[in-house]
Amino acid sequence: MRCDVVAVGTELLLGQIVDTNSAWLGEHLAANGIDSLLQVKVGDNLGRVVASLRSTLAAADAVIVCGGLGPTHDDLTREAIAEVMGVQLVLDDDVAAVITGMFESRGRYMAANNLRQAMVPVGAEVIPQIVEVRSAEYLHEPNAFLAVRRVSQHAELHENRGSTRKRAR
Description:
By secondary structure, the protein is α/β, with parallel strands linked by helices.
């Protein structure tokens, strides 16, 4: 099986942030017997993210996408995956409740844009996160995407690797 990585974020291209996620993913994919032959960095532009996902997926069995899942206008991973898969985004009420609950538990005001993180492509399986509240989408028809925010803190990636490997085949 081949699973390549696409890291999304203009800050990666500008050198403002070092892409440790792709290195971590490469190490863990290899340790689990999954070939990863390509890692791509792409800026926060919907057309370029879509093109990168399409070209990467054309050569791989699955693609892991890191970055672009936050609440701001330039976090476009959800929209790009939905476009590539030919589906709409829908609000996941369970994810929205977790996000809202996090703000409420801290007695903080929540700006409406935070609910962007609860928008998931139709057909996506949401993998709950333990460490922080940011959605992870997993699509497996006809191919697979696993989109994660911070893989070094994403325990479920490790716990679900068997499920991810099985569904991506």
